[in-house]
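In full, the data:

***
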Amino acid sequence: MYDFLSILSRNKYCDAEFISMLSIISIVSPNYELTGENKDILTSVKGDLLHIKAEFEIVTGVSFGLNINGYKITYDMNHNSLNDVFLSPEENKIYLEILIDRNSIEIFANHGRLYLVDIHNSVDSPKQLELYSRGKTLLKNIEIYELKSIWEQ
């Protein structure tokens, strides 16, 4: 399985210019324990063009997820579902790669086993990035990159 950037770097139509359009803006310490009280660890991250890579380990609880500019991505542990679509964990982990554009959100879950896309207006939404958990979830890793527009300003 490949992540989004490794697929792009192998694509003959993708060049280094695109990959250089990424700049990392946040990395949270590995193995960060999410509970209902600590959802504000990413309050400094704001933007409407983001690339997020996250790995969660299921410990105990009911659900966990992200709120990105008002759009909620929720994994329900009781039903093994991501935004109401079946997704079983891989070795008790959920891997998410999320692309946030001004008009849409794309989610690649568990290395592409599940792909979701939805319309969401990130321009007019409040800029926020929030992690939440009902119960205990371990955030194994998260990387957040800010994408630059391809359009000349």
Summary: The chain has one domain: 23-147.
